[in-house]
Batch of 4 targets.
Target 1
Amino acid sequence: MAAPLGSAPADRPDRPGRPSDLTAAEVRWLAWHEAQCHALTSREVRDLGDAWLLHDETDREPFWNRIAGLAWPTDPAAFDRRLGELFVLFASLDRIPHVWPSPGYDQPSDLIERLVANGFVDHGGGILMALDPDRADAAVPLPPIPGGVSVERIHRVTGASAAEAATAIGAVLLASFGVEPERRVAIELEAVMGLATDAYHAILVRVDGRPAAVARRTTFAGGSYLSSIGTDPEFRGRGLGRLVTALAIADARAAKSRWTYLGVSDDNQVARSLYDSIGFVPIGGVSPDLLLRA
């Protein structure tokens, strides 16, 4: 059964403006929105008052167990007390303490330095990017769809149709991201569950009938989060990644999303260049993936 979406915080960035104009409170709203996207099917999002916790009670993978959108105290004693409470919380969940900070927005301003000093280790940087409407309006229009290429927009399907779509989506994601084969079942199950909800939308591109590229769009509360954008290596170099991304953006804008955003690894220069060329710009600096040292 799909998990219900929690109540949205009050600080939603209602104006579809420039990402550079976002306030700290609005970036924390995006952190809530992204966490809710990941919790759409079976996970939990908790409001900690000064951060958002994403938790999966069945999967120990750190990606699904983390806090973001931190507004912690600057005072050293109060900060240390809050950090101790975080350790207790993650211990009660039997998970490794895991923080995704937003440089330039989360508090205190030296949050990352303090966490590193307390034993957290960076396991790889990521960048949050949001669509700049001014740049997107001037961006290259939707690329043409080549011969032999078909586009499927998949939404609100169940039963055999959902299972078939999930198998195709899972095949592309496993090939695109080098995911371990044993995670195929979890990926397909999440797709099946997501496709039964209003928020989850998938775009599947086939080449001569074979699944080749995918993108996921999760849209609710005035925001659209794009994720799972990938192309099977066998079909790369044909512009399919650009095609599915551009289609997802067009659909998000048609759905009146005020904000369309995504995350990308700092070292994925190909994806970063693609998103930049379409009209996405970084929000803040590179966000370290901070796990407490074992």
Target 2
Amino acid sequence: MPDIKAVSRQLAKDLKKYRADYIEARLEESQRSHITYRGRELESVGQATAVGGNIRALVKGGWGFTSFNELSDLPSRVELAVKQAKLVGKEESRLASVEPAVDTVASEKHSPLAISLSEKKQLLDEYNDIIWRTPRLQTSVIGYADSHKKTIFLNSAGSYIQQQRTDITLRLSAVAAGDGEVQQAGLSLGSRGDFSSIKGLHQEVAEMAKSAVALLSAPQVKGGEYTVVLDPVLAGVFVHEAFGHLSEADFVYENESLRQVMVLGRKFGSPELNIVDSAALRGLRGSYKYDDEGVPANKTYLIKEGELVGRLHSRETAARMNEKPTGNARAINYSFPPIVRMTNTYIEPGKSSFEEIIADIKEGVYAKNWFGGTTSMEMFTFSAGEAYMIRNGKLAEALRPVVLTGNVFTTLNNIDAIGNDLDMNQGGGCGKAGQMPLPVSNGSPHIRIRKCLVGGS
């Protein structure tokens, strides 16, 4: 098998020989493992390695793209991508200017590769045993995955960037059933390769399983408009799913109706509201030094002091919209070209404590965690994983999980209190254009939303 560094250095020397406006290559080596349980039984376990890459060429505004599973005969791959681009291109090529970078980014200190598959399985066996000590469970799911990836990015402008990254995810859920009712509870975690982050969760796993059973006898909220307080997990999911995707410039550029709404300078909230996407934060699952176009990571304000001030870009969308690139072009692996994606998306903290946020609520709902949801342009529907009534400024009885529905722009304007307790959720994965689950993080402090529609009885 050809050495990835050797072939990449030769390719870097050869790229300028080809007649194209721009060419880039991404070469990759990866190792992965996974363990899955369904119910009491181990469903699957395995390890895999992969080597491959892709070439992307731009000619007269048209892109050519080819991916491959071996590193031999790279010149023919380049020729194919250039030929494809010439078939498509009929206008001027435009990419936002970026200084070429030559850099090597070291791997994280932690790596799951140092831990045997049997040791990983032993920990998950313990968690599965704890789940099934709880009566009235119908089923459960545990999904563990880790990866270590080495990539080399190079382009015809002179960039040559080596990066390594590791990733771990663990997702557990328990489903309880009784008297014709079914309820579930879940736990989701992740890290940049630190296996210790998913160890020692025995108490949390036991509480998760018991929560699923307890929800069978919990009351259901009466549907209607409430003042709703979201915990950092659900608020983070809200800002990612309902607003973050609308800030991805390819989506904005391709939707005339959205361009008319997402006008820079428009007010979307109170002066306390700040929404950020930043791959430059250290140690989070959406963090990196360079994106998959070789653009340095940035901290990008999407909303600042309640005003829409930015959006997320690749080099192409930045050029088309006459804005600056933000370092948000990402590909899940070498089989795909990079597209505009979020990284670590969050609401910046305010000044209020949780006690202050709920103090003047006579009757409201506290919603935590999440199970899922859907978005359609500016409309959203999310299911909370836990919910409690708020009565006279205090948390009251537990509720069955609630469904929150609304318009994201109306909801942003209805945020009237932001907590001082920012927390980042590392357990998520983002999907777009068939590329999923891309490692991301999202977060928020507690937030309070006036006039939020809650589905119930």
Target 3
Amino acid sequence: MKTSDFDFELPEHLIAQTPILKRDSSRLLVLDKNTGNITHKSFTNIIDYLNKGDVLVINDTKVMPARLIGIKEETNAVMELLMLKTDVEDEWECLVKPFKRVKVGTKIKFGGNKLEAVCLDKKEEGLAIFKFNYVGILYEILDELGEMPLPPYIHEVLKDKDRYQTVYAKKIGSAAAPTAGLHFTKELIEIIKNKGVKVVPITLHVGLGTFRPVSVEDVNNHEMHSEFYSMSKETADILNCANTNNNKIISVGTTTTRTLETIIRDYNEFKECSGFTKIFIYPGFKFRAIDTLITNFHLPKSTLMMLVSALAGKDNIMKAYSEAIELEYRFFSFGDSMLIK
């Protein structure tokens, strides 16, 4: 299976540069994965595809303003860090620009002396480990000094930081938003709950995989970067009950899907747990955790294109994308939505 099998031509003007005015007024393409049938709706119509007893699973991760512009202490050169993940307190894996100017021991200062990053280890693919030194609370300092890490295809300035957060964002730690959730409003979630649909959270902190394209032609040779996930006992119990009663599990986004499928793969049931996942879902994968997926329109040749192709079939996805392009749907993070049922 080749990466180029998941390529398509996308007119540049269809890449959404700004969020739509009202979150739930985005368009919704509904794809039946069994028949290939396509219908076109508004996102507010999502309620029509959810039934009493179903479980809607959301990712409650919160994006950090993790893009930092600083000054290299030795030369006063301008440096950029994108904080990705941490395993040890105050030590972060970061994407560095320009990478060649960094070595072990390099110090970068942000906001004068409010925040300092010291390189502990230089890795590959533009990555390095930094120790952060500061006085106070790190996330409060990031709120003051950091910028939202918007994807590189977005060139417009984001006027409202909250528009790159879901309305249910809670647990800070992501380097990118779980964008399928950006379409939900608090009011729409209440309508969904009032219909008898259970809405439950999981957490997956989105990391480097969002920013890294697939660089190999043979899909089997691609390696995913690990991302932290967790599931509560309450969520696990509700999901297991849904399976017992043959109710549908609807996943909001590929991040939620990867978490649910990781847990089912590892434990054969949903359970309270946390860890790191490198699961790579592409055609041939057997889904065991989800029935339905709410997602956005993804980049050509990306792991996300492979995931939705695994769920709905590559031919169905390519047909749906072709129709979306013809009808000028908005693509990528701030774009329109798709329901694969």
Target 4
Amino acid sequence: MKTELILIRHGESLGNSLHIFCGRTDIALTPLGLQQAEATGEYLKHEHFDAIYASPLQRAVDTAKAVNRHHNLPLKTDDGLLEIWGGAWENKTFQEIMELYPADRSMWNENIGRCRCTGGESVLDVQARAYDCLTRLAEENKGKRICIVAHAMLFRSFVSKVLGLSPDEIKDQPWPTNASVTYVDYENGTFTLQEFSHDAHLKDMVTALPTKM
């Protein structure tokens, strides 16, 4: 029995626009991020969802609310969908992180799949958590269509595992753009990627994390 997962990255946050590593720092969407969330909600308004889930962080919840405005489902939050825990990097600029923790930050830029935020989670930690969480939600909603709003690293690492990429190949998987939509199916214990980071509906509002940070 196939379960369909619609994965939405939150709209642009203040952290994105100011080049701050937010991780689990709870930070709001920018005005552009709110517009992106509304545009994604409009794009998906005729889609059928049986349930909607979000990371408990404000930027994900506010994006989910914009999408859910057209569906009026109970909005459920799940800690398994939280962004990477940045440890000592939390709420610091990319430049500050490079100056204070150059070895760890260089690994993020050069081979992100082998990186651990200083004092925080590794990318592989996030990947395992994301895969476990999305498997659980898929199993709880067998045969249904669910919408899940969360974060860039969570979805990037998850999709890398779905595609069978090794830790050293995660660097080759792009970031999903803000408020983009990724389609994944789940059946017989296996995930299949249908489309990654669809953002044509955003037109001139597309924003993405830089390749190097």
